[in-house]
Inverse folding.
């Protein structure tokens, strides 16, 4: 069970057993409204009890057809990492627009500045370069909050690909490179060292941050704790998060901002696919109407093994089995339809033999997965749909030739 106070009563979610998968056109990313609202109930509670401002990180969740639901729960803005995301934040999310990018270009910065309420710079050289434009905007009456991203040089991230504080990281200013003489005009700090971590990791990270940047914390008005706070995951210690954030706010007299991405979309939906063919080469393989490379790239990048509803691991991967003898079921290698030889998820065991047209449903495919898809090989991009509270399914976006064509030239 998720660790949260007894006064927080979360709503029930739609059982997967009650979903008519065959009625959903394949392939499709399907957001379950009941699961999204359950996450938002918890996030809203944390925001209220901790006193922090929680905004959504578009790099993890930017399904803008769901933004009206986010606003219902007091989500007051978004954080963007590019001009395009900043424009999406302003036009579709509303509220405050927070922007951080490792580097801003001369060509795009004026437009970003026009959109942003909070601007975080990755280095003092970038701040010095664009400071005249920021000061001109302020002189014209704009309120633009400026922050510097710092690198506490502490992280508990196991995967190097997602470790912002690893050796020789390009992200954030270390203590030895920090320029107190360039802090005029800067009113906040930003750090991001977490990746789907619990609140105990945040607590240890703050201890290092305060030890290394205590003199700076005493001069700023706000501190952005970045993302990676997976507060909607089962087992996350919610009371500790609230306690840690409250204590930091009171100790330093600052406004605290959290910008999770995964926490919003965590366990809120699926990627529905269909079997196009079954081939045999010593082992049986299912060819699905999706692509691992194009539609689930983290499976290859991290890598990780997604859960498939109604399927289990083969005996050699199932650590709950003492022996593989007598194990029944129907094993299949699961692959996509691109010509990439490695466009494969892995091997799974099903309770029955699958046939052409059967649905194969990948779990937890809304956060991060959706934002990373491509049109590689021109394979059909999955639809985007919403399973509503009343059980009805709404297809909110379908992709065709024009989207594929427009991307290339």
């Amino acid at each position: 069970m998720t660790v949260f106070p007894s006064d927080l009563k979360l709503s029930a979610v739609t059982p997967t057993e009650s979903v008519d998968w065959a009625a959903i056109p394949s392939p499709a990313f399907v957001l379950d409204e009941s699961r999204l609202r359950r996450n938002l109930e918890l996030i809203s509670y944390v925001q209220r009890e901790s006193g922090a401002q929680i905004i959504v990180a578009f790099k993890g969740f930017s399904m803008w057809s769901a933004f009206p639901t986010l606003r219902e729960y007091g989500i007051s803005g978004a954080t963007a990492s590019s001009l395009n995301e900043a424009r999406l934040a302003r036009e579709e999310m509303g509220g405050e627009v927070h922007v951080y990018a490792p580097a801003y270009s001369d060509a795009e910065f004026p437009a970003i500045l026009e959109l942003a309420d909070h601007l975080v710079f990755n280095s003092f050289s970038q701040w010095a370069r664009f400071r005249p434009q920021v000061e001109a905007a302020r002189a014209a009456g704009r309120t633009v909050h400026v922050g510097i991203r710092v690198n506490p040089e502490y992280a508990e991230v196991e995967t190097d690909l997602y470790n912002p504080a690893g050796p020789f990281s390009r992200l954030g200013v270390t203590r030895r490179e920090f320029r107190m003489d360039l802090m005029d005009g800067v009113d906040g700090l930003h750090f991001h060292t977490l990746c789907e971590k619990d609140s105990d990791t945040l607590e240890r990270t703050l201890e290092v941050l305060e030890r290394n940047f205590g003199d700076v914390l005493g001069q700023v008005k706000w501190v952005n704790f970045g993302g990676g706070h997976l507060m909607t995951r089962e087992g996350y210690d919610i009371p500790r998060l609230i306690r840690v954030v409250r204590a930091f706010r009171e100790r330093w007299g600052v406004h605290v901002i959290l910008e999770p991405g995964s926490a919003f979309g965590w366990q809120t939906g699926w990627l529905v696919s269909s079997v196009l063919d079954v081939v045999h080469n010593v082992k049986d393989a299912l060819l699905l109407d999706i692509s691992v490379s194009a539609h689930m790239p983290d499976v290859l990048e991290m890598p990780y093994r997604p859960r498939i509803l109604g399927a289990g691991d083969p005996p050699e991967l199932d650590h709950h089995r003492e022996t593989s003898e007598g194990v029944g079921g129907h094993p299949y290698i699961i692959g996509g339809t691109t010509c990439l030889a490695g466009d494969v998820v892995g091997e799974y065991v099903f309770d029955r033999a699958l046939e052409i047209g059967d649905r194969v449903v990948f779990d937890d495919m809304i956060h991060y997965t959706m934002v990373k898809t491509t049109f590689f090989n021109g394979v059909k991009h999955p639809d985007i749909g919403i399973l509503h509270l009343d059980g009805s399914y709404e297809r909110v976006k379908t992709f065709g030739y024009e989207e594929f064509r427009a991307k290339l030239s």
